[in-house]
Amino acid sequence: MSFGSDSVQVHLPLAALDKCFRCRKTDAKLRVCSSCGEVLYCSEECQKKDWKAHKSNCGKTVRLDLETYYPFVAALQYTNHLLLLHRPATLHPALERKILNSPNPGSTEDILLLPDGSDEGSRIILLGDKIEESERDTPTWWPTARSAQVRNKLMRRIMTEGNMLPIVLSTALALVTEIYSTPHSRTDGARLRLQSRHSPIADIGIAKGPIRVTSKDRLSYMLKENSEFILGQDPKEHCWIYFITLDGHEYILDCGMFAFNMATGVNAKEYCQPATALPPYTWVPVMPLTAGWNPKHRFSVLRNVELRKATMVMMRVGTKPMRHGPEEDYILSWMEYVGGRTCTKLEKATMMELLQDNSLVFRLNLITREYQNFPQTPADVTVSVDLDPDQDPSTHPDFNRQAQAQERYLKAKTKQLRKGQISAKQWDRALDRWLALKRLDEVRREAAAASRR
Ligand SMILES: [Zn+2]
Ligand SMILES: [Zn+2]
């Protein structure tokens, strides 16, 4: 099947540093065209000879560093969660009912095994009578909360539960559709591209796989009136956005860990710009950009031409949105393919609604060029940890999880080197990256310790 094959053009960025575009030589030191960053040559001679053919596709490129751009994407996903709170159909049951027990940090009496017969447990929140919306996050909602801070954090964790598939998928799809759809941006002929450490992003997609969460960090719910058990965010169905650079580094953007009490976040205040009108959050949950978790599955979005065409047809300016047709069917069947299950009618409707909203946010940001006002260097992005009162930053699961992932990454690379599967140069690069992540980790520990003083 092909969508709007004549009228929609999908742009695929360079996928690999493999051969000269002119002479196809593979063994030379290849250089990227400095103007567009999207073609490779072995020599100046080849570049000159190819200019006539390449000219029409070449153009000034604005490169945004993933390290400074990602809080924008995180803030958008958080906004999606808040938006869905206003829908009666997607409102979380714990936000409209009174909490009857005391699931405070450190308490263990509310941690019970899941009723599915597995050896996994969760913290059970017992829910009673309905409350008014205005009573949410007040002592009426949760009378036994240890402090207002503890109560507010639990509320925000609950707010980020659920709808993971539509939120993550629609964000990735909207990002790719708006940024990578045309060789030139809609405004001034300059195209926008993401990069990391001077290497262009070559693939963007969805990674999916089970993650390990301790029982005390996992939430589930029980309705007192009928003893109905409601599973909270499921760590078996976890997904996030991955970015792979041309030189082979992978970064992951995981905004779904706050529900599991992994409470790192960024200050996104400077990402709130007039046109896109995201709320000026001073803290949005997102795991720091990192690498090394091996997902069970990866689903490319950037390199899925049919999916991108279908989305472009759906989101085209001037067409009535939400037009049901083969494009929508295609997008929704992709969602079920990624999810590995049948999605509910409500999830599908949520997906299409968020796809439209999120596309608009990325589009407005591009057209108005508000990305120019984003922080310019990674050092300007403030990462902090929203700790529980009794948590020591150095034992915080975020740090430990990251540190372990980094150790595993280097160990795996060393093993590959010994087996001759990677070159010494590739191992050097892995070591560099490991050292850089370690340094970053130290900086974060200091920041977390300072925030507690
Ligand atoms: Zn050449
Ligand atoms: Zn070029």
Automatic annotation (TrEMBL):
Keyword Zinc belongs to the record: yes
All copies of domain MYND-type, residue ranges: 20-58
Protein known as: MYND-type domain-containing protein
Gene Ontology MF terms in the entry: zinc ion binding
Keywords: Metal-binding, Zinc, Zinc-finger
Pfam family, one: zf-MYND
